[in-house]
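Hey, resending since the last one bounced:
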Amino acid sequence: MPSDFRTSSLNHEGDTDNYYRSSMNIVTAAEFPGLKTLGLAIARTDLALDGMVTPHAHPRATEMLFASKGIVIAGFVGTKNDLFLKWLFLKWLNEGDVYVLPQDMPHFYLNTGSELATAFSYFNSQNPGVVRMADASFDFTPDFVKRLRERLLLSLTSLEIENIRNLTLFKF
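The structure tokens again:
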């Protein structure tokens, strides 16, 4: 069927009126038959002001994140082959920037701009799966999310923000 090879599922902004102030709509081969056997999936993420996508991982796919609108901080945690030495790979993404998030690495996004941010994710699997670390680790009440968001944003000084724009790797 020709309709199997076209979708309009990502045309509209998602509802960001929630705890995280974000919305993600993923389209896999289950929703878009034209993707079957191609090893591809796509998602749209909308982030309201100070919106975030909490730490999660995709066990079956690498993700390529394209910042379509706004400013997004994206990052992932790596171990550098050492269980006790963690590395945070963090980048400030402007419109048109692309960031690669390796398969099964915990990662997150945060809107740090002054407008709605939109990003599109491309996966090299028709079913990337998702493991949400935050849901398994924390009790994400609205108050907790608000405090976490404020802490993240307030903890960044203007010098740190400038360093994040140019930083690829640092330890924590």
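The radius of gyration is 16 Å.

Sorry for the duplicate.
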